[in-house]
Design goal:
The chain is α/β, with parallel strands linked by helices and 338 residues long. Helices cover 30% and strands 24% of the residues. It has two domains: 140 residues, NAD(P)-binding Rossmann-like Domain (Rossmann fold, 3-Layer(aba) Sandwich), CATH 3.40.50.720; 186 residues, Dihydrodipicolinate Reductase, domain 2 (2-Layer Sandwich). The strands form two sheets. It has a seven-stranded mixed β-sheet, sandwiched between helices. Strands 9-8-10-13-12-11 form a six-stranded mixed β-sheet. Helix 1 crosses helix 8 and helix 3 packs parallel to helix 5. It starts with a strand and ends with a helix.
Length: 338
């Protein structure tokens, strides 16, 4: 089996450390691994396959001899270093929003559009979609293939880990403060997140939507390869540490029954059906945390329209929503293209 030199950019961040863990868990054929980060991480080491690997400060020479570079270092860093890595001969799998809507960069969820990976040859870059988009399209793609989805209405309930470690710490500190009856401090979010819900993820646009909401529209259409699919989203930050939840309503071109939806999803790659209301079994963020499957349940007909279905979709936003999907893209590259 061919083995590859892999670089992880942003290796010390929450997603970067999970990328390293996923490479190890999924036994990706790594010949050599380079762990890259900013100056702040100089001197640190991280474990990979029981070996402590020194973290290197990323610069223009970091990608010489690298086959695959997996980035989770922020949009600005990716805009600067992804072309440098590609010029050095690496294929970049980027987790930021920097390249997602570039027409020359494929946007890939391996359970949905693995063949799009071939498009890396244009710029040497493949984009990893937004976390909330990934779990939704994994669940909806089998239905779209069967009966074509005309419209999607989605409300998300997104964990604070999607913002980063500082947000996780802020929720933890606020919960402790409330329990101990001391003043609440908020720095990461504009309002208290503990015991609260904030219908505000990313910045607001002129149309009243946030960037996060428009990402779900634009990315879903690009991944599905169908610009006629209507998508409207409301994205909400909730006081959960790990695991995004989504209430999704779809309108299909052809009628599909709940039974047929369950059968499709029971056999869909990357999907775990958790749908037995009589036994109080439905997807929970606590159950999704730490695993790679997208959990789907609460499947029922929308009785307000002829061809409507409601679903509840939950996934670990750091794993399937980011790290695991990026490593799966690398696996497609390794198996078919490199």
């Amino acid at each position: 089996m061919k083995r590859f030199t892999v670089a992880v950019a942003g290796a010390t961040g929450a997603v970067g450390t999970q990328m390293i863990k996923c490479l190890e868990e999924r036994r990706f054929p790594v010949k050599d691994i380079r762990l890259l980060a900013s100056e702040r991480s100089r001197g640190r080491t991280l474990n990979f396959e029981h070996v402590q690997i020194p973290v290197q400060v990323m610069d223009e020479n970091s990608f010489d001899g690298v086959d695959i570079a997996i980035f989770s270092a922020g949009g600005g860093t990716s805009l600067k270093f992804s072309p440098i890595a590609a010029k050095a001969g690496a294929v970049v799998v980027d987790n930021s929003s920097a390249w997602r809507m570039d027409p020359e960069v494929p946007l890939v969820v391996p359970e949905v559009n693995p063949d799009a990976v071939a498009g890396y040859k244009q710029k040497g870059i493949i984009a990893n979609p937004n976390c909330s988009t990934i779990q939704m399209v994994v669940a909806l793609w089998p239905i779209h293939k069967a009966v074509r989805i005309k419209r999607i209405v989605v409300s998300t309930y997104q964990a604070v880990s999607g913002t980063g470690k500082k947000a996780v710490d802020e929720l933890d500190e606020q919960v402790r403060a409330m329990v101990n009856h001391i003043p609440i401090k908020n720095k990461v979010y504009p309002y208290q997140i503990a015991f609260n819900c904030l219908p505000h993820i990313d910045s607001f646009l002129e149309n009243g939507y946030t960037k996060e909401e428009m990402k779900m529209l634009n990315e879903t259409r690009k991944i599905f390869g169908d610009n006629s699919v209507g998508v409207t989203a409301t994205t909400v930050r909730v006081p959960v540490f790990y695991g995004h939840s989504e209430s999704v309503n779809i309108e299909t071109e052809k009628k599909i029954s709940v039974k047929e939806v369950r059968e499709l999803l029971a056999n869909a790659p990357g999907v775990k059906l958790v749908d037995d209301p009589s036994a109080n079994r439905y997807p929970l963020a606590l159950d999704a945390a730490g695993q790679d499957d997208t959990l789907v349940g609460r499947i029922r007909e929308d009785e307000s329209i002829p061809n409507g279905i409601n679903l509840w979709i939950v996934a670990d936003n750091i794993r399937k929503g980011a790290a695991t999907n990026a490593v799966q893209i690398a696996e497609v590259l390794a198996e078919k293209y490199l």
